[in-house]
Specification:
Helix content: 10-25%
Structural class: alpha+beta
Shape: globular
CATH topology: SH3 type barrels
Largest sheet: 6 strands, antiparallel
Number of helices: 1
CATH architecture: Roll
Number of domains: 1
Low-confidence stretches: none
Distance between the termini: 31 Å
Strand content: over 45%
Strand order of the largest sheet: 4-5-3-2-1-6
CATH class: Mainly Beta
């Protein structure tokens, strides 16, 4: 079972094409083999929560809370690492802020 803050490598379908690529994502929650995740990008110009190499990322990246989607357990290639407790709190806080806008 995947938990909040787990960074995974998963097959992701992009919203503007039918293309599927393997990309990192941060798990928000899992229920009935459906995993709700936030996308991660290495484009540091994008808005979101910083995810740094020293935290476990392959390169400095951004957790994009404006790019949330559901994937199947079958789309998960592997688990990479888990966010710190502080970073998990930041993700939850920012997500709640977005839901209240």
């Amino acid at each position: 079972m995947h938990k909040l803050g787990e960074v995974i490598l998963a097959e992701v379908q992009f919203t503007d094409t039918f293309e599927v690529k393997t990309r990192p994502a941060v798990v928000l929650f899992e229920e009935y083999d459906n995993i709700v995740v936030a996308g991660v990008t290495s484009n540091k110009e994008m808005k979101g929560i910083p995810l740094l190499k020293k935290e476990g990322a392959i390169k400095d990246s951004i957790i994009k809370l404006n790019y949330i989607f559901t994937i199947s357990e079958k789309m998960v290639k592997k688990s990479l690492f888990s966010l710190s407790a502080e970073k998990k709190k930041m993700v939850v806080f920012e997500l709640i802020k977005k839901l209240q806008e």
